[in-house]
Inverse folding.
């Protein structure tokens, strides 16, 4: 299936709302789909030692992410009845309020799309070699930690 | 025998470079010992190791041209 081909998930900088709208629009021709589930991660203005975070800068081990994603994709298509699944993650600087992660799953019935989307977000945070460095208003930096 | 070691995230704050070429390292343990000698702060650092993009949790033999990655805990998303 063409949807399973390994390709980079990375987008340079923030993910534009326009791209998300266009991706939804593209699926109108896939009429077997009855449900989409979308997760959007947005950079939050956390406060660290009384300093506000103004952006996160992402780096990744890109080759390893691609290899891992190919395996993860295959396991998700085996576990859930998905029509398609699209994942985008930012690299480089993303300012607070901007989108850094876009997970988009589609299926005939809602349960598969919703469950796959939720599990994918957790998998991305846990399994993919990606790192976020929080940049504060005084330009000091703190490495982000996932819970 | 050359093995490339690449660093990511907060590990680079310690090494100040994103890769080094090591020779005379035949297994992973010898790489780690060599790196701790060069960068003592690594000894107290939590990280995962991948060899040729696969996670490795025990000592393994290395061969010419292998790429070893030191990766701190992931924080994507």
């Amino acid at each position: 299936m063409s949807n399973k081909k390994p390709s980079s998930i990375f987008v340079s900088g923030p993910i534009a709302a326009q791209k998300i709208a266009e991706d939804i629009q593209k699926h109108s021709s896939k009429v077997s789909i009855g449900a989409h589930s979308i997760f959007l991660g947005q950079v939050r203005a956390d406060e660290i030692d009384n300093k506000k975070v103004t952006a996160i800068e992402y780096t990744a081990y890109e080759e390893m992410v691609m290899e891992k994603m190919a395996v993860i994709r295959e396991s998700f298509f085996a576990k859930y009845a998905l029509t398609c699944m699209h994942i985008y993650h930012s690299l480089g600087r993303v300012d607070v309020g901007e989108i850094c992660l876009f997970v988009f799953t589609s299926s005939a019935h809602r349960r598969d799309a919703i469950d796959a989307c939720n599990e994918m977000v957790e998998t991305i945070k846990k399994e993919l070699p990606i790192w976020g460095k929080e940049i504060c208003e005084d330009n000091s930096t703190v490495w982000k930690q996932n819970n | 025998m050359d093995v490339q070691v690449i660093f990511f995230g907060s590990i680079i704050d310690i090494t100040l470079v994103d890769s080094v070429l090591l020779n005379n390292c035949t297994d992973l343990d010898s790489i780690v010992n060599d790196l701790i000698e060069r960068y003592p702060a690594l000894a107290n650092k939590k990280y995962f190791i991948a060899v040729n993009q696969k996670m490795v949790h025990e000592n393994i033999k290395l061969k010419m041209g292998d790429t070893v990655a030191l990766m701190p805990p992931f924080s994507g998303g």
The radius of gyration of chain B is 12 Å.
